[in-house]
Each structure stands twice: as C-alpha cells, then as structure tokens.
Amino acid sequence: MAINKQEHAQWSSSFGFVLAAVGSAVGLGNIWKFPYMVGESGGSAFVIAYLFCIALVGFPILVAEWLIGRRGQKNPVNTFVDVATSEGKSRSWGIIGASGILGGFLILSFYSVIGGWALNYVTKIATGQFVGQDSDAVGATFDAMLASAGTLTIWHTVFMFFTAVIVGIGVTSGIERTAKILMPLLGLILFVIVGYNVMNGGFGEAVAYLFTPDLSKLTEDVMIAALGHAFFTLSIGMGIMVAYGSYLGREVNLLKTARTVVILDTVIALAAGLAIFPIIFSNGLDPASGPGLIFVSLPIAFGSMGAGTIIGTLFFLLITFAAVTSAISLLEPTVEFLEERTSMSRTVATIVSSTIIWLLGIAALLSFNLWSDVTILDNNIFDALDKLTSKFILPLTGLAAIIFLAWRMDQRSIQQELGLSNGAFQIWQIVAKFVAPIAVVVVFVNALI
Ligand code: PHE
C-alpha cells in the first residue's frame, strides 16, 4: 500500500489496493475456518451455499462498502454519517460504522488465539515433532496443546503482540508489500500439498465430498453458516472495506477490483479444502472434528512427505503471515477511531485496544480447557464470539450497507461510478436492491423461527 500523503492519503495504484484488500481477505478464514465449516456441515451443501453467498451477497456488498468509503473519505463511522447527511438522510447510519468497529474488535480476540496455534505449529513442525507420526499421535499433540491454557496464552500473546507492534508503529504498508511475495508462495505450497494428495489417495473422495451436489444437506443452519462465512472471508460487514475505500483513487474500477479479490479469496479456500480433505479421508479422520481440523490433518502429510519438515514449517509460517495481514486490518479501525475521536496518540490507542482484545482472547482460549463448561446460550466463549460476529454483526452490518447504497443513495451517480451501461446497471440494481438484502433477511428469518 504505497500511500502518497497529500490531503487524505491515497493508494498510488490499484495494485497496491488489491494487495491490501487481499491481505485482509485471505487469512485464517480461508485455510483454517473454511475447511472445518465444510466438514461440520457435511461437505458440498456448504460449498455450494457458500459460492452462492459469495457471488450474490458478498460481491455486491464488497463493492458497496468500497464505494461508500470512497465517497466519505473518513473513518467508517464518520463516513456513514457524512455520506448519509450529504444525501439528506439520517445521521444514525453512523451506527453501521460503529457496529463494524465492534465486530473487528470481537473477531480479533479469537482470531489471535488461532494465529497463536499456527505459530506454535511452526515450532512443532520445524523441530520434526510429527515425522513418521500416525494420526493418533498427531491428534494427541493437538489435544495436549488445547488442554494447556499456559501454552495457548503464550502463543496468543506473541501473535497479538506482533499485530499490535505493526499497527502501533504504522508499518502496515511494508507488511502489505511483503504480501506481494509471500501470498503467491502460500498459494504455491497449497498446490504442492494438493499435488501430494493426488498421488497419495483420498483425492477422488475429497473432490466428490466437496463438489457433488447433495441438496438434502442444505439446511437452514448450513445456509446461515455459509452466509456468515462469506462475510467473514471477504472481511465485509465490518467497516474495514469502507475504510480501505476511503483511500481509493477515483480511477480504480470497483467492479473489476472486487472480482479479482473475490476470485483469489475463493480459489485459496477451495485449494485449502483440496489440501485437507484427502488427508482426512485417507487417514480415516472425522471431517466434522471442528476447529482443529487443519492441525490434525496437515501434520500427518508433512510428517510423511519428502522435505515435509521444510514445506510444513514454511506453510505454517505463511499461514501465520496471512493471519497477521488480516489481523492488522481487524485492529486498525479501532485504533484509528480512538485516535480520531479521543486525545489518545496512536501508540496509546494501540496499547489500550490490543490489551482489551488480548484479555478477551484469553477468555476465548480458556474455552478449550479450564472454562470449557462456561457457556453463553449453550456456546462456550470462543464459539459465542465467533457466532455473534459471523452470524449476526457482520451480516446485519453488511445488509445495512447494501440497503443504504441501493435504496438511499442517488442511483445515477452510482451508475456512473461503476461505469455500467443501462442494461448492466439494471442487473446490478436487481442484485443490490433485492437479491442480496432478501437473501440475508430470508436466511435470518428462517434461522430465527
Ligand atoms: N477475512 C479474514 C480471513 O478470512 C478475516 C477477517 C474478517 C479479517 C473480518 C478482517 C475482517 O481470515
């Protein structure tokens, strides 16, 4: 993100912008969360629902958030207030920005815990812990990590500390430039693992599991999980993309850029599925084993493939890196907001917000051990944070953003800004006014009744 610092800073190129957006979007959501959600939902039904949600809900909302951000040129709360008042609408639209900031805050608390797991696995794989181990031994190592509140706290702290330092001293642009090299490498290793799987069995079964349509499994729960995940994986419904949009130059084509980001994000998630499920099937593991899925499957492959120690170490390092680029985008809005709205300096704002997030993260990681029977509406704290954000805050915030754009803003100027012909704009309007909002509402109403 090469920023040229006149007035409100701007991305100097659309490429820099794509990098920052992909940096935020591609992360644990693609490699850790997507596969285990597929597994919990029984396979292809989730994949299909997810692809629909990405195309018909996620994509238009991503465009809406960027467009609103580019109009407003401020932090998300002020952007929504300004754009609303300049369109003659109520200031209370600022709430959309606020709920987004809250979402980032809550997500980062448990995100950092998983970032910590990935870091811990870098050290485990690098020291050859999994070499020659069978699935039982690999599973036992994972369970032992979960059972130790101390271990989880240490790694969560390291992850959160890195994130805070990067945001605090303001070197996010350097990190995002590094992403230009590291993200393609992550993609490459994913494909190496997929290649290994093609040779080592379970591949056909995994492809069938992921892609053979089985609509009987398409329940309301699966649909709401897929919808929530579409928001999570694209980093929308949070104000992050609104904030990014505010740095976006006029010349950037929003639709094309969104297409690039959405395709990259989806390809990485599907590749992660093809990297993991063959190992699950060929080792007789349970696809529905939850958040530990990548940690009990990938090490088996790394323990037995040639150069597995190097490839595995690198892979978990790259996952951690991808997680950090997402984490900084989760922390940044809170820090920026505190900086603009209070007298705190950037450093103080970073320390205050990351300390609170860190504490909340400790509550989340205790769900796996000491506090496993502490529940909120039948969910442990970790799951409660995850569900509250993915299933409620993100979709509702995103819904409000698309409604605002499609029903409250001047449509002619939007057509111009998107550079669409009349016919194409009509299709856009059908999706933005009806398909996306109705999909969110229908899924919700179904889930509530
Ligand atoms: N999109 C990121 C991922 O898939 C997570 C994230 C969610 C980041 C929301 C920012 C905002 O890992």
TrEMBL record:
<dbReference type="Pfam" id="PF00209">
    <property type="entry name" value="SNF"/>
</dbReference>
<feature type="transmembrane region" description="Helical">
    <location>
        <begin position="93"/>
        <end position="114"/>
    </location>
</feature>
<feature type="transmembrane region" description="Helical">
    <location>
        <begin position="154"/>
        <end position="175"/>
    </location>
</feature>
<protein>
    <submittedName>
        <fullName>NSS family neurotransmitter:Na+ symporter</fullName>
    </submittedName>
</protein>
<feature type="transmembrane region" description="Helical">
    <location>
        <begin position="182"/>
        <end position="203"/>
    </location>
</feature>
<dbReference type="InterPro" id="IPR000175">
    <property type="entry name" value="Na/ntran_symport"/>
</dbReference>
<feature type="transmembrane region" description="Helical">
    <location>
        <begin position="348"/>
        <end position="372"/>
    </location>
</feature>
<feature type="transmembrane region" description="Helical">
    <location>
        <begin position="301"/>
        <end position="328"/>
    </location>
</feature>
<dbReference type="InterPro" id="IPR037272">
    <property type="entry name" value="SNS_sf"/>
</dbReference>
<keyword id="KW-0812">Transmembrane</keyword>
<feature type="transmembrane region" description="Helical">
    <location>
        <begin position="430"/>
        <end position="448"/>
    </location>
</feature>
<feature type="transmembrane region" description="Helical">
    <location>
        <begin position="392"/>
        <end position="409"/>
    </location>
</feature>
<keyword id="KW-0813">Transport</keyword>
<feature type="transmembrane region" description="Helical">
    <location>
        <begin position="44"/>
        <end position="68"/>
    </location>
</feature>
<feature type="transmembrane region" description="Helical">
    <location>
        <begin position="12"/>
        <end position="32"/>
    </location>
</feature>
<dbReference type="GO" id="GO:0016020">
    <property type="term" value="C:membrane"/>
</dbReference>
<keyword id="KW-1133">Transmembrane helix</keyword>
<keyword id="KW-0472">Membrane</keyword>
<feature type="transmembrane region" description="Helical">
    <location>
        <begin position="223"/>
        <end position="249"/>
    </location>
</feature>
<feature type="transmembrane region" description="Helical">
    <location>
        <begin position="261"/>
        <end position="281"/>
    </location>
</feature>
<dbReference type="InterPro" id="IPR047218">
    <property type="entry name" value="YocR/YhdH-like"/>
</dbReference>
